[in-house]
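Continuing the series of single-chain predictions for the mutant panel. This is the parent chain; the variants come on the following pages.
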Amino acid sequence: LIAGAASGIGQAAARGLAGVGALAICADLNVAGAEQTADTIRREGGRAEALALNITDETAVTVAVQGIQEKHSRIDVLVSTPAVNVRKKLLNYSGAEFDKVIDLNLKGAFLIAQAVGRVMEANRSGSIILFSSIRSVTVEPGQGVYAATNAGLVQLAGALAAELGPSGVRGNCIAPG
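Parent structure:
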């Protein structure tokens, strides 16, 4: 399951996983983009499905993960890439802008990792891969809230690894820079 598969790193992850034989379930709020990624994978000889998914909607995430589990019996890998940034200095941020960045970058990753983690824990196998950024360790003006969410993702992945590792589930975070 690749969240954020319509473009960028999510799209590349979906194509890479399909390229080594995985069924890539391409999930994104942008369902047309997810369909396009899935079509590209199928044209390249891989297996893929598209799924409309808003990872900030807890009910939608739960329903989607249950549907995947019912259809395919398991989820082996989760890659979560969605993120947004409002480039403003902290003193200029509105509460609504703060919520927007936190809700997608941190809460969305938490919701999908939690739902998939439950499936993987029950199956005693799996890999959860969250995507962060170099901003998790270095900040520049206008990047404060985004940086905070990325540092949070690193810690969230560490907590997943510590809590789910004994059940055979890996938790990792990749932070391109």
